[in-house]
Amino acid sequence: MDRFTPSPFFFFFFFFSSLLLLLLLAGQAAAQGSAPSSLAIFNDPATGYVYHGCYNETTDIPNTTGLRALHGGKVEIEPGRMTVRRCLEHCSTGAGDAQGGNTAPYAFAGLEYARECWCATSLSGLSARLADDECDLPCEGNQTQACGGNLKLSVYTLNSAARTAWSAAGLVAVGAAMSFALMQDGV
């Protein structure tokens, strides 16, 4: 019986094809490992805010003024500490009114880049809703929560019960001053 003796070429081919296969499998595993895990969307009605969705930032839209999706409000940046709850608490401290009073919470709160919290009375009409998993960065203060993404915002809105409570207390509700001004102008 003849015995098979592999040639040096066989060893060379076997070694490099095995190496190539291992590199391909390792690359595939790394790509799957780097994909964002399933991040939780924060939902606590006691905050007065409800999740509105993932929205694109508007600063990069061509031929616009470069305004942010949530502009005209305030921002809080907390590296290493930002959570959705912290942001919602920050935005609930008051939008103020024309006289500088701290009368009502901001209608919108948005988290971006895992550490930024944006508060505003409105969301830009140029901002489009994206799939929730596009807001793929975990909050730096709670790695299980979604805190926006690169030019993407996890947006929350003041729920209707909170708006009603502010209105019933005789305080300026978000948008009421603008509506009143438009009515006075005959619009």
Automatic annotation (TrEMBL):
User: From what organism does this protein derive?
Assistant: Remersonia thermophila
| Annotated ranges, domain WSC | 48-159
Chief subcellular location: membrane
Q: Which Pfam families match?
A: WSC (PF01822)
- Keyword set includes NAD: no
The protein in question is named WSC domain-containing protein
UniProt key word Aminoacyl-tRNA synthetase:
no
User: What topology does it adopt in the membrane?
Assistant: Single-pass membrane protein
Looking up PROSITE patterns in the UniProt record yields: WSC (PS51212)
- Superkingdom classification of source: Eukaryota
Q: Report the leader peptide range.
A: 1-31
Which InterPro entries does this UniProt record tie to the protein? Kremen_rcpt (IPR051836), WSC_carb-bd (IPR002889)
Entry's localization field: Membrane
The entry's keywords:
Glycoprotein, Membrane, Signal, Transmembrane, Transmembrane helix
